[in-house]
Amino acid sequence: MVRVLAAVVLLLTACTSPVEDEATEGVGPITFVDGVDTSSDRQVERVVAEWNARHSLLQEVTFKEMSPATDIHRAQLMARSQDLAGVPDPSAHAAQCYDVMNMDVVWTAAFAAGGYLEPLDPAEFDVDSMHDEAVRTARYDGRLWAVPWRVDAGLLYYRADLLAAEDEQPPRTWPDLERLASELGPKYGIAGYVGQFANHEGVVVNAMEAIWAHNGDPLHPDTPDAEAGVRALADGFADGWIPQAAFEYREEESRRAFQDGNAVFMRNWPYVRPWLDRPESNVRGSKWGAVPLPGPSALGGWNLAVSRCSVHQQTAREFIRFLTGADTQLALFRLAGWAPSLKALYREPELELLGEAVLTARTRPTSAYYDELASVMRVLLRHALANPDSVETMMRTLADRVREAEDGR
């Protein structure tokens, strides 16, 4: 009887050991975290379901949504990473680990510097085939820490029907944008221009783009050209062609204002495109169009990183390769409006406009201290936008803060 039981135990061990060995090698269920899925018809949820349909439960991916506010989203990821850093037995905390994190391009440096990410092999993810500037945001201290997934560049959306009625072309310069927004907004009883000016990263991005459009440098904000860019926005609020309500707009609020037919122009990301043609949209069809911004866009986007706390890193890397594959990226452009990171996809005719904006986009500073700098920038920029007379003073103060951040203080 003892021999029979021993044989059964050996048989069961033989049957289960391959799975255990496989799990030991980094294969197992993982958690994928992203911001709230604001894409039309929830495309992030769809691609996760597609992965799960193709794989066994052993490699199941659980999708977890973070806060819609990017600063809170970042804080949630940082808190979990810090909680699990250096735990004696990572496998005991596997369920709490965010194995694959989708991170704003400006977060990579801070998470890498903190020791919360696994370094990645560039060849494994073929990053040479990806947008060069996007890949640069995924590197820190000479190593690759993330893989570009969604590349973002701001576009200027416009009411094509209203411009056609006025025999006007979409503006390509900032003075033309100011003129048309200030003339057509009052004429049609709607806002002239909406962007993102709430107390979040959007106000930093919108201000940087205005500075670049006036030939300034955001890292030297106390120069005449940089001041001119911020003053143009501040004057827009003071003169009324940017509505006061936009002072609290994030991406979704400005998208809804334009989609409801309440603005002539809107600065926003490519994700809004499918929303504008939904049945409930008041501007669907030929009523809207899009062109590059009157000046370079800030390079936005999101990078996929593997958490150091992950005990299933092989599955995590395979999932990243799936998300960044050509088929997945092209589908996400068509269904969600997201710009792909793969350069070859911009040969598609439907990506021509977006490619023009992406290829001329400029990166924000890559620094482990960027979050601290951005927090100060938000406060100073919003004060300047609400008080045009304070622009020069605020920009001088901002220049001091930029120098402190560059010195690591």
Account of the protein in words:
The protein is of the alpha/beta class and 409 residues long. It has two domains: 27-153 and 299-359, D-Maltodextrin-Binding Protein, domain 2, CATH 3.40.190; 155-297 and 366-406, D-Maltodextrin-Binding Protein, domain 2 (3-Layer(aba) Sandwich). Helices cover 46% and strands 14% of the residues. The chain contains 16 helices and twelve strands. It has helices at residues 2-24, 43-54, 70-84, 108-113, 132-137, 160-165, 174-188, 201-213, 224-239, 251-259, 272-276, 313-323, 326-336, 352-359, 370-386, 391-406; strands at 30-34, 61-65, 100-104, 139-140, 143-144, 147-153, 155-159, 191-194, 263-268, 288-292, 299-306, 339-340. Strands 2-1-3-11-6-12 form a six-stranded mixed sheet. A four-stranded mixed sheet has the order 8-9-7-10. It has a two-stranded antiparallel sheet with strand order 4-5. Strand 4 (139-140) and strand 5 form a beta hairpin. Helix 15 packs antiparallel against helix 16 (391-406). It is globular.
Biggest sheet: strand arrangement: 2-1-3-11-6-12
Write down the secondary-structure element order.
Answer: HEHEHEHHEEEEHHEHHHEHEEHHEHHH
In DSSP terms (H or I, runs of 4 or more residues), the helix count works out at 16
Structural class: alpha/beta
Oligomeric description of these chains: single chain
Share in β-strands: 5-15%
How many DSSP-defined strands? Answer: 12
Q: Termini separation (Å)?
A: 73 Å
The CATH topology of the largest domain turns out to be D-Maltodextrin-Binding Protein, domain 2
What overall form do the CA principal axes indicate?
A: globular
Q: How many separate domains?
A: 2
Averaging pLDDT over every residue, what do you get? Answer: 92
Which spans have pLDDT < 50 for at least 5 consecutive residues?
A: 1-23
Q: Outline the biggest β-sheet.
A: 6 strands, mixed
Q: For this structure, what is the CATH class of the largest domain?
A: Alpha Beta
